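Researcher: Structure prediction, please.
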Amino acid sequence: MSDKRMVRVAAVQIAPDLETPTGTLDRVLAAMADAAGKGAQLAVFPETFVPWYPYFSFVHPPVLTGGEHIRLYENAVTVPGPVTEAVAAAARRHGMVVVLGVNERDHGSLYNAQIVFDADGSILLKRRKLTPTFHERMIWGQGDGAGLKVVDTAVGRVGALACWEHYNPLARYALMAQHEEIHIAQFPGSLVGPIFADQIEVTIRHHALESGCFVVNSTGWLTEEQIAKISPDEKLRKGLRGGCMTAIISPEGSHIVPPLTEGEGILIADLDMSLIVKRKRMMDSVGHYARPELLSLNLDNRATAPMQAGAFPDPAFGSVPDETDNADGDADRAADQRIAVLRSTAR
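Model: Predicted structure follows.
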């Protein structure tokens, strides 16, 4: 049967608060209330929006970024923690699915994280950007395959990637193969210049076409006053303008509403979910248009950790040793040692 649902979504483009610890969170909560007042069932915010994207790392050399890096640590988000609790409560109050980009602090490391809150306030997914880009590698650690997951939400099946992860076709295919209906894209915005906005548009429209899903993309915005505080050098400030492309894309690759490329605002659009089948009837890249016997993806979706505790297979035998095998194992090792001695004597 055709999906008759209509889902109203909001793509938010606002400026962070680069000065106060809770200022950006306050702006997130206010934007959620604004979007809810317009009937939005899903709200999407920019990449690492809370407390702010590390713009300083793009325009300053590493040796000069220590103070700002530490300040980012001090204001970063723990999951769960006060920030996620506040957003969860607002999501529950508004009955709204929310996708928020945060700088996540996990002990001594920061990560570029995307958090999906369901309409009841529960956290359905916390994923980390697989590979930070260029200057970002001085700021964030790497994510793992456990985050390449599509989750069932109150508005449908939702998957998410951050920024240049969209240039990794296998990462995108991992979400496509899980039949995402609404793809969340997040970029920092106010970065690189107009060419970045053009690249974002090409990327998200192509993903919508290829996956046969909707794409809701949010980019951030910096005011001229904020840009001036980040860098006193006008030449460097040029790298902190442009690059905004907040947009909502249909499965046919077209803008549902005009994109937002300058200033603050919230895009609102109604997603006709029946368009997914309309697109996939012609081209389902993980279904009738796929050739899995020729081309397929292997995904290691295990969460990584610096230490694994427990019993591990003995590489010599390929199995976990059992206490009952100790006697035989000791005898075998003794025999191996005797053979080694005999061989050395023979030489």
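Model: The mean pLDDT is 92.
Researcher: Thanks, that helps.
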